Amino acid sequence: MSTSTTRPASGAGRQEPDGPTPTESRARPSAPRDVAARRAALRDRLASGGFLAPAVLLVGALLLAPFAATLWRSFSDDHRNPGFAGLDNYTLFFTNENLVRSVENTLMWVAGTVILPCALGLAIACMTDATRWSRFARLCVVAPYALSGAAVAVVWNFVLSSDGALNQLVAALGFDPPSQGWLLEWPGNTVVLILANTWQATGVAVILFLVGLQGIAPETLEAASLDGASPWQRFRHVVLPQLRPVSIIVIGMSLANGLKSFDLIWVLTRGGPGRSTETLAVSMYQETFLLQHEGAGAAIAVVLTLIVLAASWLYLRRQLDAKGD
Amino acid sequence: MRSFDTARTGSPPGFDRRRLLLAAGAGAAGLAVTGCARGDSTAAVPGAVSISTDNGSWDDGYRKAGDALKPLTGYRLRPLSNPEAISYKQVTQMTLQTSRACDLIKWGAGYELKSLARGGELSDLSRLWDRYEKKGWVRGSQRASMAYRGKVYGVPLYESHYVVFYNKRLFARLGLRPPATWDELKHCAAVLKRAGVVPFVATQFGNWPAYEWFQELISKIDPDFYRALMAGRARYTDDVPRQALDIWQDFMRKGWMTPPDYDQSNGAAGLKAGRIGMFLHGTWAAQGFTEVGMRPGKDYDAFLMPTVTKGAEKSVITESAVLAVPRSATRHEAGMASAGNWLAPSVQRVWTDFLGDGSANPVVRAGNPVVAEVKETVARERVTRLIRYGEASPPNLVQGNTQDIAAFMTQQSSPADTLRSMDERATDEWAAWKRDES
Description:
heterodimer, A: 325 residues, mainly alpha, MetI-like fold, 2 domains, flat, B: 438 residues, alpha/beta, D-Maltodextrin-Binding Protein, domain 2, six-stranded mixed sheet, five-stranded mixed sheet, 13 strands, 50% helix
C-alpha cells in the first residue's frame, strides 16, 4: 500500500497549527495572504463537513445509535425493570440448546448459500453463455430472483408439505413418500430450506457471472486454443482467473445472505417444528418479539453483527488485497 | 474544490446546483417532518369509535355490530385491522404508549390481558362489568380471566368452546354415532381408519394449534390438574401430562392424526370430502363449514370430547378474546360507552350471526344451531369451563412450551424430554412472572 508515501505529507500537515515555521516568521509581509489561505482552507473544510453531515447524521442516528443501544441492552436481564446481567445473555450461546442448534443451522446456511448458488450460477452461466436457447434458459433461472422471499416460501410450502405436490409426485411415481414430512425433521428440513433458497438465489449469481464472462477477451481464449489447451484447461486457466473479481462479489453477497437468512425460514416453518430450523436471525426475532427476552435477543443481534462484519472483513480484505497486488 | 469556487462566483451552473441542493434539502426536510408527524389512522372520526383488531376478515362484522351499537351509544365502529398476529401485538403495545391509541383494542384474555394491564395502559372496566353482571349479560365465572389484581380490564368479545366436529353423513355411512365415552371415541377412530379416513386433525402448522390436543387430553384426564398446572401449582413432569402425551403418541403411531404440517384451513374441506373424520377445534370453525357448503346439523355436527378418566368432571376448554379500552384512547369516553354496550343482546345477535360462533352473553342464543346446541349442553350439564392454554399461563411460558409440543408432534422429542423441557421453562417463567409482579 502507499501509506509510506502519505505519512510524511500528513505529518507535515499536522505540524501546521503548531505555529509559524522559521521560514514563515521571516516572511512576515506575506501574512495576510496566509490568513486568506487559511480562511479558504477553513471554508473548504466547513463545506466538506456540510456535505458529509447528512450522511454522518443518518448513519449515526439510524445505524450506530441503535447498535449502541442494542449493545447496552445485551448486558441487561429480561425482567420488567431490566438490571445489569453481565455476560449472562452471551453464555446462552453455550448453555441454551436452541441457540446451539441455531448456530449450527446458520453455519449450514452459510456453507449452503455460498457453495450452491455460486457453483450452480457459474455452471449455468458458462453453459448458457453461447447457446441458442441461452436467453430462455437464463430467464428461467433468473425469474425466481425477482420474487420476494415470502412469495417463494408460500410456493415451496405447497410443494413441501406432507400432502403437497412433491409427495404426490413421489406417490404417483410408485414410491413411498418419506414417513416424516420434508420440513419436519432436522437436519433434513434445514437442508430442504437451503435448497429452496438456492432455487431463488442462483439467478443473481448467473447474471453476475454472465457479466464476467462477457468481459473476457476472446483473444485470450483463442491464444489458449492455439497453444493446444483443452476446453477444461481453457476454463481452469483462462476463464476462471478472469472471473475472479466477479466471484469475489458473488461469494461476498452469498456469505452475507446466508448469515442474514430470515424471510424464507419464517414464512415456511417459523423456525420450527420446535425451534429446529432457526438461524441466528430467526432466533433474534424469536427471543426479542415472541418470547420477550429482549436482552437475549440483543445479545444474538450483537453476535450476529460481529460475525457478519468479521466474515466480510476477513474475506474482502484477503480477496481485495490479492486483487490489488 | 475548484468547482465550489465556481459556484461561489455565481455562474449559472453553480446557481443551478445550489437551487437543486436547496430543493433536495427542502424535500428531505419535508419528508422528515412528514415521517415524524403523527399518523391520522387513530384520529377521531365523527360518530365512529376506532377498534384495533388482528383479523381483517372480521371487519364487516365489526361494522355491522357498530350499526347495532349506534342507537345505544351514538357511535359506529371503525375497524383498523393488522392481519399479522405478531405484528399486531407489537404495534398495539407501542401505540398504547402514545397519546392517540385506538378507542378499543382486541386482545387475549387471561395472562395476555394481565401482562398488558400491569403496564397501567388499560382502563378499569370494573363498573361496566358489575352492570353487566347485574343484568345477567355475563357469567361471574368469566371475571377471573378478564381481571388483574381485582380490577376488570376487558369485556369478552365472544365465547368459543373447543369441541369435536364430525361429518354426520360419514358417521352414518360407517354406522358410527357421536361417542359418549373414551372407548367409544377410540372405536370411532379405529373404524374411520379402517375406512381410509384420517380420524383426527392435529397439527403444529401455525404454531399455536400444537397445544389444542395437549390442553384437551390433560383436561379430559383431570380438569383439576389442568387448573393447577395452568396456575403453576402442578408440574409438567407429573403423571397426568405424561399420560396425555402417551395417549397422543399412541394415536400418532396408529395413524389416527393428520401429519403435523397439516394446514387447518383445509380442515373444513377435508371434513366435507370425507378425508378426515373428526376435527377438534374452537366453535368458530363452524363458519368455515358453512363456507364450504356444509349444513349445520345435517352435514356436520359437534360433540364435547369425552373424559379419558371414567367419572372425571366434565369440562370444556373455553376461549374469549377481549375488548379493552386504552387509557390513552383518542375518544376515551366513546370507547368506554362502546365497551359498556358491547354485550347488549341487540349487538350480540348481529355479531354472533356474523361470526357463526357463540356470544359471551348467556342470554343470546347462537345463530348456528350446532354452536347453540353445544352451549346449551354446556349449560344444561353444568360442564366446567376451563380457560384455553394460550391464555392460561404467562405468555412466554405458553410460547416456549407450544414449541416444545410441536417438537413432540414431529417426533423430534420424546414425551419425557418434552415434559422435562416444559417443566424447566415453567419454573423459570413463573419465577420471572412472580418477580415482575413484586
